[in-house]
Structure formats: C-alpha cells, structure tokens
C-alpha cells in the first residue's frame, strides 16, 4: 500500500461515518457571509433548530458592503441592504462569532479567517463561497459549499462529501524578479485550463512554493477553484507556524505545543500516490496578464493578443466572442492595451504584502491623469496596518482612492463597478463577462503589475519600472 497525501491525512482525520461513495466529514470551521446564508438560517428557524457549534462559526459581511468612508450611513441598494441586515440579525439570534461592518476586523471572509487565527493547519473549513480554497494555504482542507450545505453544516457541523483525486502541482526552483504568487497561480491555470483540476484536490509544492510567504501561498490557493479543483493545499511548515502563532484564536500554551506536534505530521508521504502531476519551472514563469474572459486566457505581458485560429475545438468560437467582448484585435501587443481603471484588492490580492508590493512600485509616481484607481484593503486590520506603515499615504499621494474593506470591484454586488466598455487592470481572480459591472472588461494581474499600469495607463511590464540590478564589481 502506498503512503498518504496531505489531503488523504486531513480527510481521514475528519471522517465521522463512511458510506458507499460518500462520507460524513466533521467541519472544524464554518465561515459565513451575507450572500449565501440567509436561506440557510431561515431553514433553521423554520424547523426550530439551533446552530450546532456557534463557537466554530464565523460570520462577516463583505460582498455587498460599500467601501466609502461614509458607509456607516447605511446601504442604498435594497437587495444589498436586506442581505447585510439579515446577517446582522442571524448572527445575533444564533450567537455566532461576528464582525459587523462597524468592527475594525471586518473584511473579506477569506482574509478575516486567517488574520484572526480561525484558520489553522489540518482543519476542515467550509464557506458558502468558492474562494474558500484560500485557506488551503495553511494545510487545511477548505472548499466552497452551496446554501443547502450551509444549512446542513450550521445544523450538524458535518458535511456529506465524496473524496476527490490527488493532484500535485510542483513549482521548482525560484521566481525571477517581478514574478509573484499571482503569476504562479495564473500560469498554472494557463497551463492546465479551467477544467484541468476538475475532480481533484491540488497540493502545490516545490521550492518556489516553499519560498512564498503565507500571503503569497493564499494567493496561489485562492485560485485553485479557477483551475477547476475542489480545493488547493500547501503543506504547513515553519512559515505557517510563525504566521499562526499569537493570533487571537490560535491555540496557546500546552494546546499550542500539542497542535504543533500534529501539524508537523501534515505532509504527503514520499510514496504517496498522485493521480495527476504537473511540474513547472519557477524560472519559466513571467509576469502575466489575462487578455480574455476566462482565467485560462493568460499570457506573459511581453506577448500579443492571440487569434481564434491559434486555438482548436470549442475554444475557437469562445476566443472570437471573448475578443469581441474585450474589444481587442489579434496581434495587438498586450503592452499597448490602454486601461480606464485600476483595482487593487480582493481575497486574491488584498493582503498587507500585496499593498506593500503595489506601494513600492507607486512610490514617487502618480496615477496617470484621467484614470480611476482604487486600493481596497481586504480587511480593516490590513487597512490599519497599511496606514501605520505609510502605504496609505503613498497611494493617496499618487492619486489612488483609499477605501474601506470589502469585496468591492471584484464583483458587481456593491457600488464599486465598471461602466459598460470600461477596461480595468484588476488584482482579483475572475474576468468573466460582466464580472466587474455590465460590459466591463477585466485584465487580471499581480498588484505590482496593476500599479505599473496605473502609472502608464496601459498594461505594463513591471520589470521596466524596477531599479536595474547593480553591475557585478
Ligand atoms: C457570491 C459568492 C457566492 C461568490 C463565490 O462563490 O465565489 C463570489 O464570492 C465570487 O467570487 O464569485
Ligand atoms: S473578493 Fe471577490 S473572489 Fe473574493 S470572496 Fe469577494 S467576490 Fe469572491
């Protein structure tokens, strides 16, 4: 018998009951936001049930909240207001952990969880949100669930699941200057396609992954879902333990020691069986941008817009439509594409390290006149830290709007939206038609690249903005 993968180990540690094909899994953390939870709580009310483990349930409004400083005045849009009000009431009525809009810890659920120490290695974590994969960066089995499953987890703290297959994505060696975690995760999807991970849980490994900070690892795992996978995982190591230690809800004292002992066993065995393996050399990854309306439509910034004939099968028609929607012509240099808007934020790239990286590019520069540019920290705590470090001032001086925390322009559920035809350099994770507003055009990229685009007003190779390497003596 072969050894176990990290996924196998976490799975086995959480099986409550095994039936043919499916299992009942225990859930350690249930994160909740306002979009996918109202009917679930209503279901509990109708059947007179309580939340089974309120201490394991964490709620925060993020998708529908305005990000302007006057947001204490309330939400104008009725649908948005109803959802956020419902979460306020449900959190109070059911006694779960809650970070309301007025709390400095409020933010995007996938940033709030790790930041406050709710997200820990070896856990099972679910949320009615596809980007729950983010938490896999800690070596937790984390994935999105539907609203009826949200109700099931609220009521029972368990989830019915069938096991996925094991896929290994190895990024060897080191990243070149100007290349980031975002370029890794986009390049993997460019390589495997958006269906490449279907039916699998991906474990990301290799030297380039090991060298990433926790912020970078979260960026990588965040987009596992965009590659079709059920979840993304990175084995915990000293970087993980250092990040977790001392956080509000992380274990302390003897409990920390006991947890650490278990966490250190959380890695795939040498002889584990992989159903699929993808290997990419870190040195081969370039700063990339998306040109189309799928996250797999990704190319190095030095490339040109492809033609439909460059593809085969159903993709030919898809690319044709995509180029039409995006207002692009085959052969056009990506670096010549002019933008109207820059959005730095989201659960992919709204953490402190992302803001540091963007600010480092912006320092001493200005947003090109006529552009709309905004930085939306992923949480109130990220915002406060960025203010303390002087990053907020750099962004403001450069001409960026400095916003309050939320999903913001990542998706069109709140006032931060693109107008039809507007083109945006965005650090988020989805570039679907209408994602950032009806008719809006999205180019996905890293925070560094988005900052570079803000300066020039077009898609730009961030390496041109970087100080040259000193000549060897
Ligand atoms: C609204 C929510 C259910 C959705 C998701 O599941 O991911 C959103 O967060 C997104 O990014 O599209
Ligand atoms: S920031 Fe974007 S991707 Fe993340 S949870 Fe919010 S809407 Fe979804």
TrEMBL record:
Organism in which the protein naturally occurs: Pseudoroseicyclus aestuarii
UniProt record similarity statement: Belongs to the aconitase/IPM isomerase family. LeuC type 1 subfamily.
Residues binding [4Fe-4S] cluster, per UniProt: 347, 407, 410
Cofactor note: Binds 1 [4Fe-4S] cluster per subunit.
Location of the Aconitase/3-isopropylmalate dehydratase large subunit alpha/beta/alpha domain: 8-457
Function: Catalyzes the isomerization between 2-isopropylmalate and 3-isopropylmalate, via the formation of 2-isopropylmaleate.
GO molecular function annotations of the record: 3-isopropylmalate dehydratase activity; 4 iron, 4 sulfur cluster binding; metal ion binding
One Pfam family cited in the UniProt record for this chain: Aconitase
Name of the protein: 3-isopropylmalate dehydratase large subunit
Matching InterPro entries: 3-IsopropMal_deHydase_lsu, Acnase/IPM_dHydase_lsu_aba_1/3, Acoase/IPM_deHydtase_lsu_aba, Aconitase_4Fe-4S_BS, Aconitase_4Fe-4S_dom, IPM_dehydratase_rel_enz, IPMI_cat
Lineage: Bacteria, Pseudomonadati, Pseudomonadota, Alphaproteobacteria, Rhodobacterales
Pathway assignment: Amino-acid biosynthesis; L-leucine biosynthesis; L-leucine from 3-methyl-2-oxobutanoate: step 2/4
Cofactor: [4Fe-4S] cluster
GO process annotations (BP): L-leucine biosynthetic process
Record keywords: 4Fe-4S, Amino-acid biosynthesis, Branched-chain amino acid biosynthesis, Iron, Iron-sulfur, Leucine biosynthesis, Lyase, Metal-binding
Top-rank lineage group of the source organism: Bacteria
Quaternary context: Heterodimer of LeuC and LeuD.
EC number per UniProt: 4.2.1.33
Catalytic activity: (2R,3S)-3-isopropylmalate = (2S)-2-isopropylmalate
Gene3D superfamilies named among the record's database cross-references: Aconitase, domain 3
């Amino acid at each position: 018998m072969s050894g176990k993968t990290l996924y196998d180990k976490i799975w086995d540690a959480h099986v409550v009951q095994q039936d043919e094909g499916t299992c009942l899994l225990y859930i350690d953390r249930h994160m909740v936001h306002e979009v996918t939870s109202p009917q679930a709580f209503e279901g509990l009310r109708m059947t007179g049930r309580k939340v089974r483990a309120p201490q394991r349930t964490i709620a925060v409004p993020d998708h529908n909240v305005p990000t302007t400083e006057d947001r204490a005045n309330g939400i104008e849009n009725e649908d948005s207001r109803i959802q956020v009000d419902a979460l306020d009431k449900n959190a109070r009525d059911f006694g779960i952990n809650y970070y309301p809009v007025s709390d400095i810890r409020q933010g995007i659920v996938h940033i709030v969880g790790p930041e406050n120490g709710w997200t820990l290695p070896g856990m099972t974590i679910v949320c009615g949100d596809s980007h729950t994969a983010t938490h896999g960066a800690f070596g937790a089995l984390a994935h999105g669930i539907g609203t009826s499953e949200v109700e099931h987890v609220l009521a029972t703290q368990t989830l019915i699941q069938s096991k996925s297959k094991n896929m290994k994505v190895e990024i060897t060696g080191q990243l070149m200057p100007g290349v980031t975690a975002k370029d890794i995760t986009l390049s993997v999807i460019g390589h495997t396609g958006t269906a490449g991970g279907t039916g699998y849980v991906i474990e990301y490994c290799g030297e380039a992954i090991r060298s990433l900070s926790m912020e970078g690892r979260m960026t990588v795992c965040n987009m596992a879902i965009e590659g079709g996978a059920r979840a993304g995982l990175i084995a915990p190591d000293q970087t993980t333990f250092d990040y977790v230690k001392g956080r509000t809800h992380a274990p302390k004292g003897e409990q920390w020691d006991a947890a650490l002992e278990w966490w250190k066993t959380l890695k795939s065995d040498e002889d584990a069986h992989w159903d699929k393996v993808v290997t990419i050399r870190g040195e081969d990854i370039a700063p990339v941008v998306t040109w189309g309306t799928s996250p797999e439509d990704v190319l190095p910034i030095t490339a040109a817009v492809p033609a439909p004939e460059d593809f085969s099968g159903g993709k030919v028609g898809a690319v044709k439509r995509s180029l039409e929607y995006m207002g692009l012509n085959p052969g056009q240099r990506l670096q010549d594409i002019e933008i109207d808007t820059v959005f730095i934020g989201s659960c992919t790239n709204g953490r402190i390290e992302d803001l540091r990286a963007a600010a480092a590019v912006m320092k001493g520069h200005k947003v090109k006149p006529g552009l709309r540019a905004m930085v939306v920290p992923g949480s109130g705590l990220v915002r406060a830290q960025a203010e303390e470090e002087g990053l907020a001032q750099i962004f403001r001086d450069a001409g960026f709007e400095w916003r309050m925390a939320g999903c913001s322009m990542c998706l069109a559920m709140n006032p931060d939206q693109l107008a039809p035809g507007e083109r945006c350099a965005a650090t988020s994770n989805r570039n679907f038609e209408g994602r950032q507003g009806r008719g809006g055009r999205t180019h996905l990229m890293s925070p560094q690249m988005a900052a570079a685009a803000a300066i020039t007003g077009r898609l730009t190779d961030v390496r041109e903005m970087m100080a040259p390497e000193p000549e060897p003596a």
